[in-house]
Design a protein that fits this description.
The chain has one domain (13-140): Four Helix Bundle (Hemerythrin (Met), subunit A) (Up-down Bundle). The chain contains four helices and no strands. The chain has helices spanning 14-35, 41-68, 74-98, 101-140. Bound molecules: fe (ii) ion (2 copies).
Length: 141
Amino acid sequence: MSLEWTPDLSVGDETLDEQHKRLLKEVNLLVEVTEQKGANDELVEGILKFLDSYIAEHLTYEEHYMREHDYPDVERHKVIHDGFRSAYKEFRERFDKHGSVVALTKAARDFLGEWWIDHIVMEDQKYHRYIEEHEKTKVHS
Ligand SMILES: [Fe+2]
Ligand SMILES: [Fe+2]
């Protein structure tokens, strides 16, 4: 499974696209690092610390963006984000408790990597389509 950002993942906003790219890049790095033999706990910790704040920042920014563009389904989208927020918290606590990169390898790929790709493809594309349509009608009316 590829965790690469590709242009078809674009949500039509430069800032959000940059955030998605960076998120996938860091998750990729995390997967790579955790899959190395004798992976470095400190390096993993560093990536996770970065992800902690970057993920929080992105989700909040995106919710704000959807509200700003009057996306009608923002609350449902926020519920999905909240679900991820608590799953991520659990994932982090597990790492803090066991501090083991081995335990993290599969979780990093399955949970973090797949969640982000799926979410961008399935959910983020919904506000992308709505906003694109909406702005078009605005211009023509
Ligand atoms: Fe997003
Ligand atoms: Fe989202």
